[in-house]
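re: that chain from earlier
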Amino acid sequence: INPAIYVFSDQNYLSFKKTIMKEGQKNDTFLLKENQMRVIADFIRYIVVGGLAFIIDFSCLVFFTEIVGFHYLVSAPIAFIISLIFSYLLCVKWVFKYRVFTNKRIESSLFCVVGLFGILITEGILIIFTPVVGDYKIVKIISTAVVLFWNFFMRRYLLFKPAQIKKSNSDKRP
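^ sequence. v structure.
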């Protein structure tokens, strides 16, 4: 079963769950598959949001560096912060179905802290590899891939970790 099919619709998710249960698999097997599907589905949605955030980030980086005239090490965090705000809004609305914190100030602050570590990773990669590669734009693309994984896994497990799934035959999406 291709998890990408089940990313965008709760109805598809319920259909997937019924299919697994009809195949006579043990509940434990289903729970493992269900947990894997949730991580994969969240990650696919995160890639979509991350792709849009990257377009904003990269566009702002080039704009501030080449049009405004800032140094790329100054432009990078400005662009990252702009894309971070966009990313947060879409992550809480669409990517992650569960929330650890009910207090939005705490949640958004921790989201930003993870993002700040992402900025540090980005800056470190830019500082180290731009002189070697010769083009900050290419290095930025490479750093984005690294930061994508950092951000997803830290945010998912610190801020948007689902509660443990209990064994039940309910069709309600966990």
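The chain has a mean pLDDT of 79.
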